[in-house]
Amino acid sequence: MSGIFESIFSTADSMGPFEFLVCIGSALAVGFIVSMIYIYKNAHSDSFALTIALLPAIVSVVIMVVSGDIGAGIAIAGAFSLVRFRSAPASAKEIAVIFLSMAAGLLIGMGFLAFALIFVAVICAVILLASHVDFGKPHTRNAEKVVCITIPEDLDYNSDIDTLLAEYTSECELVSVKSTNMGSMFKLKYNVTLKDELQQKELIDKIRVRNGNLEVAIMRQEEKTGGL
Asked: What is the pLDDT of residues 40-51, one digit of tens each?
């Protein structure tokens, strides 16, 4: 059993066509596994999914070309990082998956195929488990809404609307007030956290009583994806 955890390259000059093809095939298999696990429950582009699938093979070839010299391999890989300045900023999750693919490619390039497979299997299992239990997701995320209300100009929203929202929300913030219809109406926009999501219709009905049956909308807050 211990033999499968040894490098397939017994010496620095032992790489032949067979070993090269085995490493490339293993890297592509690992890359597509990582890519499929990532796209299972994450928003993605087709170019990013393909990049993750091919990255282990590319990194493994770089390591094989430098005959396992990690220092030289890192120096060459650093040259590829120049493409970072021509690409869109990535999210923290995307960066983690990129490093996962690179680490798998590094192990395969050194000939440690079994270690690469175990490493990818463990990390992918953790990713699936975290997605299943919504690890790190705020518990109030589904209750966070945007409430847009149209009111006549003579309605005091500070007393009539704000007090009503306070009854149904645990957090409420007025983020914008905009005049419309030649100044005869106002459009209010609130970021709120509902106490009970099942009371949305009841809240809308009570707002319509106070704003004269004008437009009311409750929408999901946009998720912030740009930052880490």
From this structure: 877 778 888 898
